[in-house]
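User: Please predict the structure of the protein below. I'd like the answer in structure-token form so I can feed it into my own downstream comparison script.

Assistant: Understood. Taking the following sequence of 283 residues as input:
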Amino acid sequence: MAIVAPGTAPQAGTARRSGATGPTGSGARRTGSAAASLWPEAERLLDALSPELVLLLDDLSATMFCAKDVTGRYALVNRTFVDRADRRSPREVVGRTSAELFAPELAERYDEQDGYVLREGWPLRNELELIRNLRGEPGWYLTTKIPVRRDGEVVGLVSTSRDLRTGDVDDQVIGSLTRVVQLVDERLDERLGLADLASAAGCTAGVLERRMRRVFALSPKQFLLRARVDRAISLLTGSDLRLAEVAVRSGFYDQPSFTRTFVRLTGETPAVYRRKSTVVDAG
């Protein structure tokens, strides 16, 4: 994983807090840092990222990874992202914007997604996108973008786009799942059930189950539950709403059911999770 400024030669053997340099023999790509050349917004974003996670993401050959600061500039990318942007090295990507790297229609969509995540402080999950590769061939990607906070303030975002590379994921399947994702996002505070998701997908519950497991590796119930917990986490860490209100806005029946589910999936109560996130931000 290279964290370098454009035109700056990497210094072998140096490492940043953000984990730019992998340990010898670890399999991580050994690159250097240019801490003095990074701009303030990038510094703040990178300081908020886990170095171990950053190193791990560099080895995902079928997944594009990037971190973008609040000014819209790329602060961190992996090798797959560099290849997808048709550049030779991370130094040709870091410090640039989407408009400087991608075709106008792609850059516009990326900026719209990024603006939503940075402005609202909400994650964007499971966005299905048809993207052409360097040979001009279309392929389906599954994109997730998550805001990064420091001291309670959004300082940037991290994003992954996974190449589905599945011959049996055709346009009909993708179209049906796109409608499911939109339904969940727009009506998460309602008591959605499997029948609602299947109706949006235009197929039977059994067919939807197979499609979602194939693409998302989750059942419809698991997908819906994860979306509710994701929404709750965003509200817990990004607002001062009462727990009962967080439960309602996340689509849980009541606060007790919200607490039981949250504890089961995260190992902590919502109140403890909020308190710990506040301590981390303050630190």
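That's the full token string. Residues 1-36 have pLDDT under 50 and may be disordered.
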